[in-house]
Design goal:
Length: 249
């Protein structure tokens, strides 16, 4: 991914974050980001000619864990569960790893992966965090009309946020990357399976994870809040957030 492409992606994400942008403009910008990432997200991936067992020519895909970088997304005395969950959503959309570490005596939410993946993931996390905050504020304004006693940080507010993030998980699970990407291999062009590139990245991420000494955390699963319409509304709002993950025509 070239510097110009990364700048273009950042501009599109800035547009999606713009409070003056319509919902249609924000989603169109995110879809464009997904298209650019799918088209160019092969830098730092070694794609070389190889000979298969049957003697035909193919390609070999490798990712060096040493090329991976780390970046701090957010630091706080206590990282909220929503910040952590949003990072998990991002990790389903972009091939990066996430973990909680420390930075200057504070808890730090960190991501690691190839430089271009980390850059896109950081921008996406920022966008999702702003979307969560914006939608939660909108929920509060409307809820107070019917329930004047509702307070910021109250159970209704928290369950709405839980639902919103779980709605984002629903969208992330629908993510479908383009099946093939055309790349230059030596002096010729070759069609490379995107799934092979993603698998190579996953293998390198697992190696990087071991080098960081990370332990796999226990999955908490989806929360349910019987009797809380706030959770259901949050989940529906989260599902309507495109994430740019739907297939690009």
């Amino acid at each position: 991914m070239t510097t110009d492409t990364l700048i273009k992606i950042k501009k599109l994400l800035t547009l999606a974050n713009n409070s003056g942008a319509t919902e249609g403009e924000a989603q169109a910008a995110l879809r464009r980001v997904a298209a650019l990432a799918a088209k160019y997200n092969i830098s730092d991936v070694e794609i070389n000619k190889a000979v298969r067992e049957d003697g035909t020519e193919g390609v070999r895909i490798e990712v060096n864990p040493k090329d991976m970088v780390e970046q701090v997304l957010h630091t706080a005395v206590n990282i909220t569960r929503w910040d952590s969950w949003l990072a998990s959503v991002v990790a389903k959309v972009v091939p990066v790893g996430v973990y909680l570490g420390s930075e200057r005596y504070q808890t730090a939410l960190k991501i690691y992966g190839l430089p271009q993946d980390v850059a896109v993931a950081a921008e996406l996390w920022t966008y999702l965090r702003k979307s969560l905050s914006k939608n939660a504020r909108g929920f509060m304004r409307h809820a107070k009309l019917d329930r004047p006693w509702i307070t910021s940080g109250g159970v209704e507010h928290r369950t709405y946020k839980d639902g919103f993030v779980m709605g984002l998980f629903d969208v992330a699970k629908e993510k479908k990357a383009p099946e093939k990407t055309e790349v230059a291999v030596g002096a010729t062009m070759a069609l490379v399976l995107t799934s092979d590139i993603q698998e190579a990245k996953k293998t390198a991420l697992a190696t990087k994870e071991r080098s960081l000494g990370l332990r796999t955390g226990r999955s908490r699963g989806a929360r349910t809040h019987s009797g809380h319409n706030d959770y259901g509304r949050g989940r529906r709002d989260g599902q309507r957030t495109d994430l740019g993950t739907r297939r690009i025509a």
